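Onboarding guide, step 5: your first structure request.
Type a short instruction followed by the sequence, for example:

Predict the 3D structure of this protein.
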Amino acid sequence: MRYLAAESKGRYLLGMPDNCGSYDALAQLRGNEPLLMDFLDEPEAVKRAARLCVDCLRDSCDIMFETVRGTCMGGSVHGWMNLLSRGKIMQLQCDLAVMLSPDMFGEFIMEELRGTMDFLDNGVYHIDGREQVRHLDHLLSEPRINMCQWVSVAGQPPLIENVPTLRRIQKAGKGLVIQISKAEIKPLMQQISPKGVILLVSDASSPEEAEDIVRWVERATGDALKN
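The system replies with structure tokens like these:
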């Protein structure tokens, strides 16, 4: 990262690596099934381990944020979400949460997320599939989570069928980062507010088509954004 920062010379922004998710890290170290049993058998030990992971995350991120700051106009970048922040930004995630109840999410995962938010300026929670919707009450109650990123997982219903969930996130005052195909843009933007929405379009075939998509979104949402 230091090499890339030194070589940038204003030519590119240097994004943070995918350094996140303390409980996901524990699951990789321990194994999913043993860790899930630990939630029941050794809950306090699991929480202590998660706090250690948050400490490691904070210490490593301090180094990384300082390394990228000069290439990001004094802030930081989340690369694959195409997000630029004046402060420190990274994704919040717990893919393990698809195997947890809302009560366990509230007891374990929210503590870890708050600990992570203590050293961030902007947090974006990575909602990886519909199984995480049951945790929304907890996520939307945390004021320091600025945005939610929605990922349509293979084998699950298409994005448009998740509009009620997206509206629920918007009603809570959170922004949205949505991975979307060009065919889904028009029906989606007719049903949600454009305010605070970032669309990551996956299948524009050329720069010209990408520009056409941008112009269509500008025309279709301009009046709503003025109000």
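Each response can be followed by summary notes, for example: The beta strands are 76-78, 83-85, 89-92, 122-128, 145-151, 175-180, 197-201.
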